[in-house]
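subagent[fold] <- orchestrator: predict structure for attached chain, return tokens only, no commentary.
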Amino acid sequence: MILVTPQPAFLPILRQLQDLDVLTLHPQFTKTLNDTDIKARDLGSLFSENARSLAIQDAVRVVTALVNQPLNTGELSSTVAQYVTNLLPSYLYPRLSDMALLIHGLDEVKPKVILCHNDVEPLTRLLALWARARNVPC
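subagent[fold] -> orchestrator:
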């Protein structure tokens, strides 16, 4: 099983790996691959309800800790300090649940290889870190 990030440059590589189960991070890229006769499935469709529940719990735990134990904002301007104290938790919550879901889902699915076009965007960085922590080639 190989997990790929959405990158059209991967199409020639994936055509050579037809015998592998190809998973993608984005439904639109799954459609693109299937339209070019590369069988692929969306990773998110494989996540269990347990993974989804754990992800929400993790996000709530982190945001609750941030609200109950605010960061030290003494060195920040008042505008930034107000944002960090009042708005950062609500900004982070949906992103944290997405990231936690990706981690829990990957732990369930256990891809053997991850083909990632970069490791600087939040989700692709998370893929690379997950792979490194579990000795999965990336």
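orchestrator: received. Logging for downstream: The chain has a mean pLDDT of 90. The two ends are 13 Å apart (CA to CA).
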